[in-house]
Amino acid sequence: MVLPRIFHYDVDERISLIQTITGKKPADIVISNVNLVLAPTGEILDNASIIISGKRIAGAGKYSELHRFIGKNTLVIDGENNYAMPGFIDPHIHIESSLLTPHGFAKLALKHGTTTVVADPHEIGNVLGSRGVEIFIDEARNLPLKILIDIPSCVPATDPSYGLETTANIIGVDEVEKLAALEGTIGLGEVMDFISILNANKAVLEKIRVAHRYGLIVNGHAPLLRGAELDAYIDAGIWSDHESTIYEEALEKARKGMYVFIREGSAWKDLKALLPLIKDHSIDHRFLSFASDDINVVDLMEKGHMDRIINIAIEYGVDPVKAIQLATIGPATRIHLEDHVGVVGPARLADIVLSKNIEYIKPHTVIASGEIIYYKGESRKTFNNYKYPEEALNTVKLAKTPGPQEFIPRINNREGIVEVNIIGVTPGSALTKHVVEELAVKDYKVLADPSRDIIYAAVIDRHKASGSMGKGFIKGLGFKAGAIAQTIAHDTHNLIVAGNNPEDMSRAVKRIVEIQGGIVVVDKGKIIGELPLRLAGLMSIEEPETVYEKYKKITKELMERYGLEFESFFMTLALVALPVIPEIRLTDKGLVNVREAKLMPLINK
Question: Where are the transmembrane segments (predicted)?
Fold first, then answer.
């Protein structure tokens, strides 16, 4: 593990800390008159002060002669009896899901008190391979938000030898080793392929071995694993999990020594179900943490980040200090950085959040590594833009834009009725159902039936310009406009398009190519909403406020026109192409039977 430079300190820095707290050298910042949240012990110390020298805390507590630390250049902040707490830490997040770049995400996360995140750039890794991970690492170096990187462990999501989809890149053992040596990598990202773990697959275990050799943490993804299967998963050297949705499942993982991340993101919300884990058991707070996993730009702007999760927990009756521990000392311990972050105390990085109230956390002043980023709600930091390489901004490569008729499945029969295998979806759910329906055939074309909520769908290779396109039907999406196309299609992120009108589908795909990635909605030949996502076809390079406004505009337009909840069907459609979650999926190669890991026919003979 090679920590970013911000975590390094030499003898001169230690001398400065010692001299400051012994009154031989003035502090850079003194924060007085605060109620100090002591994350290690769960106490609150009133009338406390925090003494900062450089990027670290020289001391924190009650000092009778505060003037000893103050010189002519010392910035003195009156805490006004506010609550001072450690900067918040998110131990597991996919920044790409916010639709923001690391730069844009950092601005919003810091405003809400988050000072450290562990990001798994799994999505950009699928599009750009290890180069995408390197771009994230490079951009993070100059941001005040400490972004630590988990190396994606499952790129692509399926074994290429299965031939289920056209993938862009592979992050194998060699790539993991190369990335592990870079400054800023802290772990191996969630090991989603638990089936391979249970089968003792050497290729997957070799990635874990490399991670351990470099001193990296290894993060898990073990939904519903219990008993001996859970033991086997832990035996592989995987010590954390964020996929628990049932209290008993999470408790078993904690009892077996796993670090349990309680997930409360924009799409997956598990906090309520796992509340007894916090309230009814004396689980060491170092083994429990909150995590967001995925959070969108609207929630970030309107509700916050880790402060949002803390406040939800408090609303559910969790003691505020306990909730704060799960966003500070808990995750700090898991990532083995409790000597640096997660505590307002001597020698730690000066990551500090001030909030007037502890019953509802609303950060107004945020200090990260001794630098004031927000003061009383106002930004004090200029965030420099990052220049992305052209290869990261031009990732939509199609052999050609399919014409309208190419989206309609064709068979040898001119007229009649056929039995079709259809992807059944429920907006807001990641699962699909294998639905069999009869559809009409006209002029050799199998027709959608919007009256039964059965619409056309297609996935097109956008990485290699191969012309590969899989066609099918989706039932249950509730989409009433002409077409929606998007380059967010987990995990490979090929181009997915769905709709009632093939002409609109072709128009939407054409526009996606023009803007080089994003989301486009078309109806009756007119573009009624679009959100360009130029970076890898996943993230906007615009400022977060602009992305937020465009996202809200699409949401408003679709709700007013069609009564559609955009977030729900956008995320549902994005998962239609993920061939690792049952029951059936659609890729550029066609329909996939997930349980059998093989392609299946669209039409039943």
Answer: none
Reference 441, options 419, 461, 464; nearest CA is 419
| Number of alpha carbons in the 13 Å side-chain half-sphere of residue 26 | 10
DSSP assignments along 153-201, one per residue: S-SSSS-GGG--S--S----HHHHHHHHTSBTEEEEEEE--HHHHHTT-
Specify if 68 maps to a domain: no
Shared-domain flag, residues 123 and 179:
yes
28 located within any domain: no
Both 101 and 220 in one domain: the answer is: yes
10-residue block means of pLDDT along the chain (605 residues)?
A: 88 97 98 98 98 99 96 98 99 97 98 99 98 97 97 91 92 98 97 88 95 97 93 97 94 96 91 93 87 95 98 98 98 97 98 98 99 97 93 97 98 95 88 95 97 97 97 93 95 97 98 98 95 98 97 89 79 91 94 93 94
Amino acid present at 498: A
Residues 201 and 305 in one domain: yes
Beta-bridge partners for 31: 50, 77
Residues 271 and 405 in one domain: no
Distance CA 469, CA 497 (A): 11
- Answer yes or no: do 399 and 281 share one domain: no
Paired tokens of 153? 């462990």
Stated as kind and residue range, the H or E segment containing 401 is none
Residue 7 has φ and ψ, to the nearest 5°, of -85, -15
Residue 245, burial from CB neighbour count under 10 angstroms (0-12, 13-18, 19+): middle
Could you say which of 288, 323, 344 is where a domain stops? 344
Q: Are residues 271 and 128 in the same domain?
A: yes
Domain count of the chain?
Answer: 2
Domain hosting residue 151, numbered range: 87-344
Query: Where does 264-328 have alpha helices with state H?
Result: 275-279, 297-302, 306-315, 320-325
**DSSP label at residue 481:** S
Q: Is residue 173 part of a domain?
A: yes
Final residue of a structural domain among 344, 361, 383:
344
C-alpha pair distances (Å), 387 with each of 101, 120, 392? 11, 21, 10
Beta carbons within 10 angstroms of residue 52's beta carbon: 28
Give backbone dihedrals phi and psi of 77, rounded to 5 degrees, phi first. -115, 120
